[in-house]
């Protein structure tokens, strides 16, 4: 049992641990350009923040009337993304400090992400976070992506943790909804500032309204200590 009274911490990856959304946007833009969609904007991309890659391309197929199968679109987008992720993924400095702080205290940790297993592995290796985050669940490995609770419940199962003893860190509304559906506490760090007032975030146990610019490892750790004491 770690020093935080048996609490386990589950991290979303993209936009939470790592500033990967610019790479996801660029991979999406390149993919859609290949299929004749030339005007995919950052604002368009923001609507997909927190949704799995598979569900994103399935929606593209409907929205843009693409004839290519979902599996083909998924493979093309993942290929573009891996090219970008392998060269330019960056962990948020305070998130890295937080992970290192928890690792030093023996707190069980996992990553639960809507990205593919290959994309998750590439990012964790590129950033060096794989040294501390060895339990990883991709939405590709479970029946349903966020906002369903499946990825978080599977992460808890692999950690051997009760969902009620897990705290999730999330940047997107679907992920926050998934955490609550799993019966877990949620620290919300909104990636899209305009979503800070979303109802999913209003219910957060800790809402870092200013996003990553406001998040600090020490404040998050202090909150976890209080949470462990109150349980």
TrEMBL record:
It holds the Pfam family Hydrolase. PANTHER family: 2-DEOXYGLUCOSE-6-PHOSPHATE PHOSPHATASE 2, PSEUDOURIDINE-5'-PHOSPHATASE. This is HAD family phosphatase. It comes from Streptomyces violaceorubidus.
């Amino acid at each position: 049992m770690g020093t935080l009274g048996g609490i386990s911490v589950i991290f979303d990856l993209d936009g939470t641990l790592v500033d990967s959304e610019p790479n996801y946007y660029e991979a999406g833009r390149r993919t859609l350009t290949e299929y004749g969609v030339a005007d995919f904007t950052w604002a368009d991309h923001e609507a997909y923040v927190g949704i799995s890659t598979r569900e994103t391309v399935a929606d593209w197929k409907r929205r843009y009337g693409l004839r290519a199968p979902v599996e083909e679109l998924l493979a093309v987008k993942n290929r573009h993304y891996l090219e970008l992720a392998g060269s330019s993924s960056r962990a948020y400095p305070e998130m890295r400090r937080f992970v290192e702080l928890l690792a030093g205290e023996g707190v069980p940790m996992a990553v639960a992400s809507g990205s593919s297993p290959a994309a998750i592995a590439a990012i964790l290796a590129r950033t060096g976070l794989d040294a501390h985050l060895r339990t990883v669940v991709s939405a590709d490995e479970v029946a349903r992506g966020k906002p369903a609770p499946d990825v978080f419940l599977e992460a808890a199962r692999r950690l051997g943790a009760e969902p009620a003893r897990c705290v999730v860190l999330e940047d997107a509304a679907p992920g926050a909804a998934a955490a609550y559906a799993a019966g877990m506490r949620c620290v919300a760090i909104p990636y899209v500032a305009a979503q800070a007032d979303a109802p999913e975030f209003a219910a957060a146990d800790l809402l870092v309204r200013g996003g990553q610019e406001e998040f600090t490892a020490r404040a998050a750790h202090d909150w976890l200590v209080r949470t462990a004491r109150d349980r």
